[in-house]
Amino acid sequence: MSADSLKREAAARALDFVEPGMRLGLGTGSTAKHFVALLGERVRAGLDVVGVPTSEATRADAEAAGIRLATLDEVPALDLTVDGADEIAPDLSAIKGGGGALLREKIVAAASARMIVIADEAKWVDTLGRFPLPVEVVPFGLTPTLRAVEAAAQAAGCPGPARLRRTAEGHAFVTDGGHFILDLALGRIADPAGLADRLAAVPGVVEHGLFIGLVRLAVIAGASGVRIETAPSF
Ligand SMILES: O=C[C@H](O)[C@H](O)[C@H](O)COP(=O)(O)O
């Protein structure tokens, strides 16, 4: 089965957690895109929910699917967010931001009573860090911020180079919030919480892609089927 089919299976299973009247955070990326499409089918069949998209791309997909949308200012407390991930570990800590949407994704997740991550088996890892960690930074002072981000990783025991993310055309990638992304190649993050604290303390860092204590349930689709992994308080 292709990775894309597995992503769709995970997305389909996550629909079981959606109830009428829910206020939903809608994630970003190729897996979340399946969820939005499948949710749209339910909405067109009569399900009443309201969604808050985590990116302009998801906003466009959700609008096309016929899902009623709101902003977080209109609906500040959400029932459930369903989103993808770049890596997820057994304690349900995760790396997100491969698509550059980590800032809005984290704001929406933090405003949600529960967050479900949907992923194919390849995203399930023993230890986070093989996927380069996205760090969203303001363009002003990029070089000292990049150096400080590398120093923060070194101090957290996982040194690695930070690279400015670029588009295929070679321009700096710009997020929906007008920021840049540094991708931090660490290999193995032994202490995600310690690294998160150090990155958050760097002036110029807007947000990082470590999601710690936010994910309550993961739907993981593999060749042998779909399984549910839960955090203690789901
Ligand atoms: O910024 C993007 C998001 O964090 C995505 O949810 C993440 O990169 C996973 O994307 P995909 O489902 O395409 O692998």
Question: What is the beta-strand fraction?
Answer: 15-25%
Sheet with most strands: 6 strands, mixed
As laid out across the biggest beta sheet, the strand order is 2-1-3-6-12-13
**Radius of gyration from the alpha-carbon trace, in angstroms:** 17 Å
Number of strands: 13
Relative helix content: 25-40%
Q: Would you kindly provide a written description of the structure presented here, covering whatever features stand out?
A:
The protein has two domains: 135 residues, Rossmann fold (3-Layer(aba) Sandwich); 73 residues, Alpha-Beta Plaits (2-Layer Sandwich), CATH 3.30.70. 29% of the residues lie in helices and 25% in strands. The protein has six helices and 13 strands. The strands form three sheets. Strands 2-1-3-6-12-13 form a six-stranded mixed β-sheet. A hairpin with a 5-residue loop joins β4 and β5. α1 packs across α2 and α2 runs parallel beside α3. The longest helix has 15 residues. It is globular. The mean pLDDT is 97. The site of ribose-5-phosphate has 18 residues, from α2 and α4. Ribose-5-phosphate binds next to α2 and α4.
